[in-house]
Design a protein that fits this description.
This is Kojibiose phosphorylase. GO terms for molecular function: carbohydrate binding; glycosyltransferase activity; hydrolase activity, hydrolyzing O-glycosyl compounds. The protein has three domains: 317 residues, Beta-galactosidase, Chain A, domain 5, CATH 2.70.98; 396 residues, Glycosyltransferase; 66 residues, Maltose phosphorylase, domain 3 (Sandwich), CATH 2.60.420. Helix content is 30%, strand content 24%. The protein contains 19 helices and 34 strands. Helix 7 packs antiparallel against helix 10. The longest helix has 24 residues. The relative contact order is 0.08. The structure holds beta-D-glucopyranose. The site of beta-D-glucopyranose has 12 residues, from helix 6.
Amino acid sequence: MIRERFSEHIRNYLSDDSWMILEDHYDPEENLKYESLFCLSNGYLGTRGAYEERAAKSIPCTYINGVFDKSETFMRELANLPDWLGIKLYVEKELIGIETCRVLEFSRALDMKHALLVKRFVLEDKKGRRTEVEGIRMVSRANVHRMGIRLFVTPLNYSGIIEVENIIDGSVINFCDAPRFKVKHTRLLTNCPLTDKGAYVEVATRDRKLCVGTGSLIEAYAGGRPVMKNRSFGAFGETAVEFQDFDAEEGKAVEVVKYASVYTEREVPDCHGDSCTERASDRSELHCRVRDEIKGFAADGFETEMSRHIEVYARMWDEANIEIRGDFDLDRAVRFTLFHLMSAGSEHDDRVNVGAKLLSGEEYGGHAFWDTELFMLPFFACVFPDTARNLENYRYRLLDAARANAAKNGYRGAQYPWESADDGTEQCPDWTIEPDGTCYRCYVAVYEHHVTAAVAYGIYNYVKITGDRCFLREKGAEILIETARFWASRCEYNREMDRYEIRRVTGPDEWHESVDNNLYTNYLARWNLGYVLELLREFKEDGTGLYEDLKARLNIRDEELESWSHVKEKMYLPKGKENGLLEQFEGYFDLKEVTIEAYDENDWPIRPEILRTVPKTQTQIIKQADVVMLLHLLGEEFDEETKRKNYTYYEKRTLHGSSLSPSIYSVMGLHVGDETKAYRYLRRAAFIDLTDLQKNTREGIHAANAGGVWQTVVFGFAGVSFSEDGVVDIRPHMPKEWEGLSFKLHHRGSKMEITVLPDNSVTVTVLEGGPVSVRINGEAMVLKGSGPADEAMVPEGSGQAAGGPS
Ligand code: BGC
């Protein structure tokens, strides 16, 4: 048991191994990876798992979702905000630190159940003094403005004075380990004591001058009594340091608690006015808010806040946990991806989205991509519908910006940006810089337009899962209309061929940039047009006046609707002539036929040798699921044979250069009956970060992949799908490695638990709401729900129902 590695100070708070991720030795080369793996976030902020005393290799980051800044960079990115973690302990001026002492014992672990990061080190300094330092860190989800660290410091072979620094470091920058990209996004406003003790640093982002206040207070207790003495404060440039000390006795643990809090001007709107930048001695509103929060936190105590935090996580896990029995390490790896995904989503704030690296790393600047709608949203819609609604509202809030974006690019309607931050303008950089300083023009945003269809598809899927027709009618319909409008204007009519085309476009496979008629994009655009037309027909018939209202408000003429219908009917969808193969884009089949022939020891495709001499663009090798992504999203448009043929064909050509790929190949592998591959793809996806398979976990956790893992288990192995008329279809394909699978789902106001056994028999229990229409292994029934849980158990292929379906 991992928890046995910790003393009684910590052990009792920890969960069993299925919830624990362990780092069992110190290797500085692994620091950046573990900072991502051990990031703690609460939907509001995220702090990477850096050491309190710092290490040479480190990218310490605290981000608040929605706090972006551009300054000298190419785009608005999440600003690295003052680092609240700092605690340094000294004995006679010797730092008791992981890199300044000999590490005699070492364990760090993430407890995912309780969302705690814990550590235990025994460190020996140059004079042979040994100190045990144990600790718990939390970023509270009960009160998202409370962060805390509790250390237990025990001198093992000496007694003496231990000096303590409580540090808030406002000097942190983005991309601190990349010389060319370093940027400082904040400017110091205040560096002062929190009250008569503690430390407070207030900064403002440089462009929009949004103020952020970070405060902390440190206390020490021995036998429950406060023992901290000799406090003094020092402001060192942008770093606030509070000094203090305590007497430590050999063999006796002293508890050191750091209470920290952060607020921004968004939550304390009156905090400054223009005086923010020039404030003199007066405490700002923001300062007062942080001070009061810390006072409250210290009065409640670390333990109380921690139990509230654990309670919130207990509720969250009650919704989100997936249990895979009989496959221990995969079970834990799946949980790990869910932990990070659910921790980053916000049920409170619809001004923020979920970035491609969550709140755990600086790559992609915290921007939202199509990753949100197509990879993560299904998880949130089924597990945390309130968070899903916020993600939908986020796109609605930024609809005007998408309209402006379309207009800027010469189109009508709304074109969502490829990368979205806080204001909805395009945040994908126009340039990239290579390590040698060469600048390249980056055309991703110029050509990769399919995100606009993803936003539309996200609405469709969100409404299908949650049944939130209110959103559809009040907001979603408007987005759908404006995105359809965009596609209609984006398509070009080819008179000679009498068809509509989308030229100069990039599909999901970014290794073939700017092609004509990417099948995925054309299909999705066509789908967007078709779905809106159907929806408008429905609104027209329901007689509520919504149809007329939308037409008037959005200035839709009948001719425009006709033209959409025309574009839809005549959209060009490239296909092979006789072989049933779908062509990824026009001309793809003419490219050099290169396929993947060798696999490494992890059963992963080896890059074909020929790519050393022939550019990828000239070959059929692709980065990620593209046609296969289309089969995943619009499966009902293709027959089984087409799906199987195309899966096999493209699987041989996909190098999975993006983490968005393996999970989709897993789900589709199951659809086409290739179960062994599906299982291997799921393992790949679930371990992508834990084993750093893409070699870039240091830059943050792969968020879309986390959503993809959830979809693989639920939509793939459990075989769950939702029909438009509200039926939950369940047709599992359990891999031979699993002894059982269970999870919970929300669906249109009901909540159910689904358990699958190795023989693919399914038990569905309605826990809340109902009735729920289900089709289990082909057998349709209605579970009444409400009151005592209603349950159905259906063995595979038997057509028999047990339990109480009505
Ligand atoms: C992928 C995109 C994805 C982006 C952010 C890229 O490498 O090709 O599909 O949206 O990463 O995750």
